[in-house]
Amino acid sequence: TASPLLLVHGVWACVRSCPPSCVCTPERSCSVRCDRAGLGQIPSQFPCEASSINLDKNSIKFLSERAFGTLPSLKSLSLNHNNISFITPGAFKGLPSLTELKMAHNEYIRYLHTRTFTALRRLVRLDLADCNLFNIPDRIFIELPALQELFCFQNNFRRIPGAIRGMENLTHVYLERNRIEAVAYNSLQGLTKLKYLNLQDNKINVIHERAFQGCQRMEYLYLNDNLIAELPENSFDGLRRLKMLNLGGNFLRNISNTWFRDLGELEFLYLDRNRISYIEEGAFENLTSLVALHLNSNNLTTLPFSVFEPVYFLGRLYLFRNPWECDCRLEWLKEWMENYRLVRDIPCASPSSVAGIDLTDVLFERSPEGFCLDPEELNVTSERPTPSEEPWSTTESKFNSLISKLLLQMGLPEEVANATEVYSNSTQPDGQTEGVSSGVGEERSEADSCSLHLPRAVPVLL
């Protein structure tokens, strides 16, 4: 440990060399605070003992060569929220111990020289977020062998920077909110220690085969809010340590049974806000560690037990905002909801007799043989002598009221007008229903004019 005399000298030296408009705190290590000081340029002198310098929220425009002199103890330097437009090659020379450099939110930095960060061999964390960068030179990080965390989100990159290839110590890469269009087969080459990759909110529409094959230590992968409509069969092969995969907010229509076959450690899978209408059997078969599965806001009408069986006891299942067809194929899901209470809010879209009702409130009746019976599709065109005892949907009630008013206007007795029924989507011979249209059947399109075809559209009960 340092002697009291040396400590006193260090405190005195830190305060003595403090730049004007800055505050220097000598406790433990010399911390220099120059944020919000109205500075237009870098101060000419800093305490030699400085371990951290904060120059955030000033008006600094230019960094010359060796802009900070020689500061052998400096570990953290922050230049966020300035007006920096040009950085001279070698600007950070003389800072051999620097481990963290933050230059985020400098909107005029559009170009960086290959030797911008030369001599920063101990740099671990580099923040270049929101700097209006369109690209960076491929060899710009060649002298940063210790770099682990790279923040480049909210720039204008159209591709994943080639500069990160071969950076074998990189563990975290933040590239969200750029304009990246593809993940090429070699985009992530050599990133053997990468654990976290954020590519959300880009323009990605293509992912090459085995694009992530070199990232076998990956644990968190964000691909949400892009333009992905298809994925190669072997997209995530080799990612056996992956814990979280976010594919939400894309244009996926089907889920392949090959995508997740290597993801035995996956705990969180986000497939929400896509256009998924079909899931291949076995798609979730190997997801034995899954804690939460997000399938909300898709086009799913059913979820066969055979597809879902391998992850039957997962922690959370999110299924809301789908056009669910609440027939006997979903009876197993209702039972699971009641037994485990780990999923809720599954409003039915069809059949019409249960439309708007939550699946938990649907009563599945049984045949004399004990088989499940689907809820009925309301259909007034059938020859049943009495109206269905099932509750009408709100849409049908409104349409019924409209027809009654029209009949009254035509001079028919009120008791006749009140005896009308409304038919919905017709049931096919095999028990399958047609796609939901307006709720009154597509063949009514010709009858929506002033001439109302009573015999066909509105049977009158006498």
UniProtKB/TrEMBL annotation:
<dbReference type="GO" id="GO:0030425">
    <property type="term" value="C:dendrite"/>
</dbReference>
<dbReference type="InterPro" id="IPR000483">
    <property type="entry name" value="Cys-rich_flank_reg_C"/>
</dbReference>
<dbReference type="GO" id="GO:0007601">
    <property type="term" value="P:visual perception"/>
</dbReference>
<keyword id="KW-0732">Signal</keyword>
<feature type="domain" description="LRRNT">
    <location>
        <begin position="17"/>
        <end position="52"/>
    </location>
</feature>
<feature type="compositionally biased region" description="Polar residues">
    <location>
        <begin position="421"/>
        <end position="436"/>
    </location>
</feature>
<dbReference type="InterPro" id="IPR000372">
    <property type="entry name" value="LRRNT"/>
</dbReference>
<protein>
    <submittedName>
        <fullName>Nyctalopin</fullName>
    </submittedName>
</protein>
<feature type="domain" description="LRRCT">
    <location>
        <begin position="322"/>
        <end position="368"/>
    </location>
</feature>
<dbReference type="InterPro" id="IPR050541">
    <property type="entry name" value="LRR_TM_domain-containing"/>
</dbReference>
<feature type="signal peptide">
    <location>
        <begin position="1"/>
        <end position="17"/>
    </location>
</feature>
<keyword id="KW-0677">Repeat</keyword>
<dbReference type="InterPro" id="IPR001611">
    <property type="entry name" value="Leu-rich_rpt"/>
</dbReference>
<dbReference type="InterPro" id="IPR003591">
    <property type="entry name" value="Leu-rich_rpt_typical-subtyp"/>
</dbReference>
<keyword id="KW-0433">Leucine-rich repeat</keyword>
<dbReference type="GO" id="GO:0098794">
    <property type="term" value="C:postsynapse"/>
</dbReference>
<feature type="region of interest" description="Disordered">
    <location>
        <begin position="421"/>
        <end position="450"/>
    </location>
</feature>
<dbReference type="Pfam" id="PF13855">
    <property type="entry name" value="LRR_8"/>
</dbReference>
<dbReference type="GO" id="GO:0005886">
    <property type="term" value="C:plasma membrane"/>
</dbReference>
<dbReference type="InterPro" id="IPR032675">
    <property type="entry name" value="LRR_dom_sf"/>
</dbReference>
